[in-house]
Amino acid sequence: MSKVTCVRKEQLYRLFINQCISILFIYLLAEFTGSALKGVTDWTTLVLTDHRPYKLSEDDFHRVCRVPHKKGANFRDFPGVIVDSNNTVHRDRTKEVLLPSGKPLLPDYVFTFEKGKSRRMFEENRV
């Protein structure tokens, strides 16, 4: 076997090892981060593994369940909210929605924040 052939085989061997290491690294990374789809065939069985939700109070849980299912929905889309022509929100006293605890669906600070003109009440308060 000539020296050139040995060098070529060594280069191919290193390339093969590097590719194996890369594939192994990608597989382990997917396993570690939880993004591997281990034979999942139904989207309902997928679990978001890198997320820790906050514990909600019973009232907040009922509020979350009542969020309208549409793109871009915010507190202005809740039942019992009136949006005036000058883009100010008010509580509809004739159609007031209460939670099982007796509290209103939307707290008072939703209507008093920026004098009712905020478009995204809960997003603007985030730190």
From TrEMBL:
One of its GO terms (molecular function) is DNA (cytosine-5-)-methyltransferase activity. It comes from the Eukaryota. The chain crosses the membrane at residues 12-30. GO terms for biological process: negative regulation of gene expression via chromosomal CpG island methylation. Keywords: Membrane, Transmembrane, Transmembrane helix. GO terms for cellular component: nucleus. Coiled coil: none annotated. PANTHER family: CYTOSINE-SPECIFIC METHYLTRANSFERASE, DNA (CYTOSINE-5)-METHYLTRANSFERASE CMT2. This is Bromo adjacent homology (BAH) domain-containing protein. It comes from Artemisia annua (Sweet wormwood). The lineage of its organism: Eukaryota, Viridiplantae, Streptophyta, Embryophyta, Tracheophyta.
